[in-house]
C-alpha cells in the first residue's frame, strides 16, 4: 500500500517536471500572440480612423 503510493507520487513528480516546461512555453506563446493581436488591432483601428 505504502509502496504503491510512493511509486504514484514519484511518477507524478516526474510527469509534472516533464510537462511543466512545455506547458509554460505554450502559455508564453499564447500570451505573446494575444499581445501582438491587440497591438495589430489598435494599429488597424488607427488606420481606419485616419
Shape: rod-shaped
Rounded to an integer, what's the Rg over CA atoms? Answer: 21 Å
Q: Which residues sit in consecutive blocks of at least 5 with pLDDT less than 50?
A: none
Helix vs. strand class: mainly alpha
Helix content: over 70%
The major β-sheet equals: none
What is the average of the pLDDT values? 93
Order of helices and strands: H
Counted beta strands: 0
In percent, how much strand structure appears in the residues? Answer: under 5%
Query: Number of DSSP helices?
Result: 1
**Through-space gap between termini:** 71 Å
Task: Give the SSE map.
Blueprint: H1 2-49
Question: How would you describe this protein?
Answer:
Helices cover 96% and strands 0% of the residues. It has 50 residues and is an all-alpha fold. The longest helix is centred in the middle third of the chain and has 48 residues, at 2-49.
Keywords:
50 residues; mainly alpha; 96% helix
Short characterization:
The protein is mainly alpha-helical. Helix content is 96%, strand content 0%.
Amino acid at each position: 500500500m505504502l509502496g504503491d503510493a510512493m511509486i504514484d507520487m514519484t511518477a507524478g513528480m516526474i510527469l509534472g517536471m516533464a510537462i511543466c516546461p512545455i506547458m509554460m512555453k505554450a502559455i508564453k506563446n499564447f500570451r505573446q500572440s494575444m499581445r501582438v493581436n491587440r497591438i495589430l488591432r489598435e494599429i488597424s483601428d488607427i488606420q481606419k480612423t485616419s
